[in-house]
Amino acid sequence: MTSLAFLPVFDRQGRFSALKAAVLIAVILPGLWIGWRLAAGQMGAKPITAALHETGLWSVRLLLVTLLVTPLRALTWQNRLLQVRRMLGVSALAYALIHLGLYVFDLKFDLVKVASEIILRFYLTIGFAALMAMAAMGATSFDSSIRRLGAERWNRLHSLIYPLALLTLWHGALQSKIDASEHIVMTGLLLALMGARILRRQGKLTPLWLLGLAGVTAMATSLVEYAWYALATGLPAGRVFAANLMLELAPRPAHIAGMLALTLPLVAWTAPWFSSAPKSRYSGTRQRGVTG
């Protein structure tokens, strides 16, 4: 391994990777866009609050994309996708740290107040716990950590990514109060990715099973939305749930999550047309690690 392999746009052999370069640009652009709008005064009446919200969302989005890498690799047999999994996970951590930094800045660097708020406010407590777990995974995301910890302990630590994602989504939904639509959609997508992980382990990562998973994702997202409005808000949860059956209304979180989950069976169906990989890729060969 050459020294170039440590740079984010080079692979392990020190060769320039167009895929890694494209992903690096993609994960940096949202941060640059938020920073530019902050500097230009285009973030509304409460710019730091708006930036807090957006950096938190991008952290969760990138966390979900990180989890998407393994099923996509299993479906397409494109091993090079694994090159960007670490970059995506570290980027999710970077946005989470910026999110925390903005919160500290908003409280004028009063670390005592920051600590007391984290202890006293439940949504901050679970958010901070998720950040600590994410930081532990980020700090051990290198090959040297695998050798030092041992594969079994390293895998156990990195399997925390699923409960970590749930905590992060819960934190975001509580922070957004009444309108938690995007967090509900992302919760549905997380459930879909967890379902894909189970199917892969059972050797059932096939178009038909994934089509069924998309339907289950839509139904599960409806239940998550119902539970959220029933338990966390004063809005009529029954009416919100019934809105999922009214197709004339704007797409509900369940519709969006279900349609996005449909991309998995679509990839499974179309991948053979663009790949010479054997059909046995649906067998779900287990690759343990940060995304399970």
Query: How far apart are the first and last residues' alpha carbons, in Å?
Result: 25 Å
Query: Main β-sheet: number of strands, strand sense, barrel status?
Result: none
How helical, in percent, are the residues? over 70%
Radius of gyration: 20 Å
Number of strands: 0
- Assembly of the depicted chains: single chain
What is the strand content? under 5%
| Average pLDDT metric | 85
Secondary-structure content class: mainly alpha
* Unreliable sequence segments: 279-292
Name the overall outline: globular
* Number of helices in the DSSP assignment: 13
* SSE series: HHHHHHHHHHHHH
How many domains comprise the coordinates? 2
Concise structural overview:
The protein has 292 residues and is mostly helical. It has helices at 18-39, 47-76, 85-106, 111-120, 122-139, 143-149, 151-158, 161-176, 181-201, 207-232, 237-242, 253-261, 263-274.
Overview features:
2 domains, 292 residues, mainly alpha, 13 helices, 0% strand, disordered C terminus
Please explain how this structure is put together.
By secondary structure, the protein is mainly alpha-helical. The chain folds into 2 domains: 1-176, no CATH class; 181-282, no CATH class. The chain has helices at 18-39, 47-76, 85-106, 111-120, 122-139, 143-149, 151-158, 161-176, 181-201, 207-232, 237-242, 253-261, 263-274. Helix 2 runs parallel beside helix 9, helix 4 crosses helix 5 (122-139) and helix 9 packs parallel to helix 12. The two termini are 25 Å apart. The model is unreliable at 279-292 (pLDDT under 50).
